[in-house]
Amino acid sequence: MSAQRQGRAVAQCRAFVREHDLDAYLATLLAPQDDQPRLFAIWTIAADALRLPWSVSEPAMAAIRLQWWREALKAGQGHPALQLLEGQAHVAPLESFLESCARLHGPPLASVGECRQWSQQAFATLMKALGEEPDTPLALGHGLIFLLRRAPWPRRTGQPLLADALDRQAMAHEAQEALKSARHGRGNLPFRLSGIWLKAIRKAQKTGQPPSIPQWRRQLALLKVVITGRGW
Questions:
Q1: Does 194 have pLDDT greater than 80?
Q2: pTM of the model
Q3: Model pLDDT for residues 120-163, shown as the tens digit of each residue
Q4: Which residue in 127, 130, 221 sits closest to 182, CA to CA?
Q5: Which domains does the chain have, with CATH numbers?
Q6: What is the pLDDT of residues 49-97, one digit of tens each?
């Protein structure tokens, strides 16, 4: 691939990730420069898959998009992100991740156990795709927090992501315990913001407002991880 073509692909992926997953964008900017094209490519695929429940109104449309990604991954072409990926190591874990994303288009998740299973499967496989050693507690905590973060916004189908009877306080507690068990270090950097998101979620549960964290605070939290290896 020419340097010019690669540069265009990186710019497209970087812009997409910045718009749809600011945490991943900020974290990838702190990665070694040689790793950034690959990481932006994988986060582009992940961000596109994870946003579908809130961007398409028909589950069939989401299924078509997820299947398109599976076929494009196998072919190694069809999207700028795939121009930045070499080899096949990322294919199987990304296929598993995409399969997990399909569950987000089904009935509302109805129990903490179901949320736990989804979180571990989805984000442990995404860690593998990113080339990181999977940290199961971190994947679990991050996944539960992802679900709690997205829960205030109904999916485009009109259905909630989480069942009304689901104990969100229990989910938050389990996420906290999982993060306590996660390994410290600079690996899996985008997932290291889960701790401050959990604090924002608990505050939002009291105020009734959607959780939010300003960009500068996210950047400081990521820098802390890079410098100290500890994120919470």
A1: yes
A2: 0.95
A3: 999 999 999 999 999 999 999 999 999 999 999 999 999 999 99
A4: 127
A5: 3-228 (1.10.600.10)
A6: 999 999 999 999 999 999 999 999 999 999 999 999 988 899 999 999 9
Q: Closest Cα to residue 56, out of 161, 157, 160, 151?
A: 157
Q: Which residues pair with 109 in a beta bridge?
A: 162
Q: Do the beta carbons of residue 73 and residue 95 sit within 8 Å?
A: yes
Tokens, residue 128: 């593998």
Distance, CA of 147 to chain centre:
10
Widest CA span of the chain, in angstroms?
54
Contact 22, 215 (CB under 8 A): yes
Gap between the Cα atoms of 159 and 137, Å rounded: 29
Can you tell me whether residue 109 is helix, strand or coil? strand
pLDDT in tens, 196-224: 999 999 999 888 888 999 999 999 999 99
The answer to whether the CB of 160 falls within 8 A of the CB of 105 is no
